[in-house]
Amino acid sequence: MVYTARIEQTPDCPKRMRYYPATDSFREKDMPDVPDALRFPYPTGWLTESGTPPCEHLDVIVLTAAHCVLGACIPVRVIGVFLRRDGDHKLAAVPAEAAVSDLAALPAEQRAVLERHYPPQYSGEGWFGAEQAARVIADYFARPKRKFIITVQHTESEHHVSGMIGARHDWALTARGREQAYAIGKWLLWEDCDRAYEMYVSTQKRAVQTAGEINRTLGIQPVSEERLCEVGAGQGN
Predict the structure, then answer these.
(1) Of the N and C termini of the chain, which has fewer Cβ atoms inside 10 Å?
(2) Nearest residue to 222 (alpha-carbon basis) of 204, 192, 200, 197
(3) Exposure string (b/e) for 178-211, b if CB count within 10 Å is 16 or more?
(4) Rounded CA gap, 120 and 116, in Å?
(5) How confident is the model at residue 33 (pLDDT cuts 50, 70, 90)?
(6) Cα–Cα distance between 200 and 210 in angstroms, integer?
(7) Peptide bond into 54 cis (omega under 30)
(8) pLDDT tens digits along 40-84
């Protein structure tokens, strides 16, 4: 079967790259270089039919000597897989027009490159052929996909320092609360939460301000939702 590999990393990239689906663009990751990974001679990416990073997807190595650019979509056939104990398997594929149909048919030099770059570290790990790769793909499409939901409570508000309760009034954040929210945004950015996430926020001032400070780094346009507002408690305190 022919799939489409979207290229996310090439031998020309000086650093690890990260994909941003909102802008369909690639940027260098803010992390140290990984020399072993950067010496890998083959482009890598994901099968577009399986999803898009950062959501679940299937990683793929494209065994080609042709020059590939970031974002290129290449028709491929999967011929093998490196099974990992943590489930983050790496498919091996060749361009669709290639004659090779199984990992075992690769030249010894190519096999050696794969085995050097992805050596088994635990029992059950290792390189397997097209039949095992087909099972990995079938299992992936058969199981329900995970969804990640991150909840963030508004940060320090005026009622936290005035002895009042939040449900009595539409309080604003304090200066400290704004700093806290900005720090949360930077942490979420480090966790790649600016990619393919949607943000929902109540219409209350403290929640809107928290979202605003978070989005100084994430840059997500929040969706206002009145049903998320705290239930009013009348005039009591």
Answers:
(1) N
(2) 200
(3) bebbbebbeebbeeebbbbbebebbebbbbbbbb
(4) 9
(5) very low
(6) 12
(7) yes
(8) 899 999 999 999 887 889 999 999 999 999 999 999 999 999 999
**What is the pLDDT, as a whole number, of residue 62?**
97
Are the CB atoms for 94 and 79 separated by under 8 Å?
yes
Residue 170, Cβ density class (10 Å: 0-12 exposed, 13-18 middle, ≥19 buried): middle
Check: CB of residue 89 under 8 Å from CB of residue 76: no
**In which region does residue 47 sit, left (phi positive, over 0), alpha (psi from -120 to 50) or beta (all else)?**
beta
This prediction has a pTM of 0.68
What percent of the chain stands above pLDDT 70? Answer: 91
CA angle 142, 200, 170 (to 5 degrees): 155
Name the residue with tokens 């079967």.
Answer: 1
* 3-state class (DSSP) for residue 44: strand
The whole-angstrom separation of Cα 203 and Cα 227 is: 9
